[in-house]
Amino acid sequence: MKNMNATPTIPVSTWLRTDRPVVPVNQVTWNYLPEVETALHSGVPATADTHHPGFYEIEIGDNWYYVHVPKRLKAVYIVAVQNRLTAERSGFLAHQPAC
C-alpha cells in the first residue's frame, strides 16, 4: 500500500486590475460599490479561489471582499463583504476559503 503525502494548498495571488463596471449581487453590498470599483480600476492584490475559477478574495481597508470576474460577461460582481475587525472580534476568520 502506497502512502500519499498531502501537499498544502497555497493560495494563488495575483494583481487584479480591470475597468469593468462593478455590480453588487444584492442590496447589502451597494454601499461598497465605489470603494471596490476604485480599487479595481487602480489595481489591487487578490487571492484566486482555487475551487471556483474567476472568483477572488481582495482586501480594501478594513473590509474583505469576495468578487467574481466572469470571462464572458463584462462586469465584476461583489458576492460577499465582511469587515475584518468585526470578524476578528466575533471569533470568525475573515479569510475562510469558499467551498
What does this structure look like?
Helices cover 17% and strands 33% of the residues. The chain is α+β, with helices and mostly antiparallel strands and 99 residues long. It has one domain: 2-Layer Sandwich (YaeB-like fold), CATH 3.30.2310. The protein has a six-stranded mixed β-sheet with strand order 1-3-4-5-6-2. A hairpin with a 6-residue loop joins strand 3 (44-48) and strand 4 (55-60). The longest helix is centred in the middle third of the chain and has 10 residues, at 33-42. The chain starts with 11 loop residues before the first strand and ends in a 9-residue tail after the last helix.
- Look up the CATH topology: YaeB-like fold
CATH architecture: 2-Layer Sandwich
Helix content: 10-25%
Q: How many separate domains?
A: 1
Give the ordered list of helices and strands: EEHEEEEH
* SSE class: alpha+beta
List the helices and strands and how they pair.
Elements (H helix, E strand, L loop, with lengths): L11 E5 L5 E3 L8 H10 L1 E5 L6 E6 L2 E6 L7 E8 H7 L9
Parallel strand pairs: 2-6
Antiparallel strand pairs: 1-3, 3-4, 4-5, 5-6
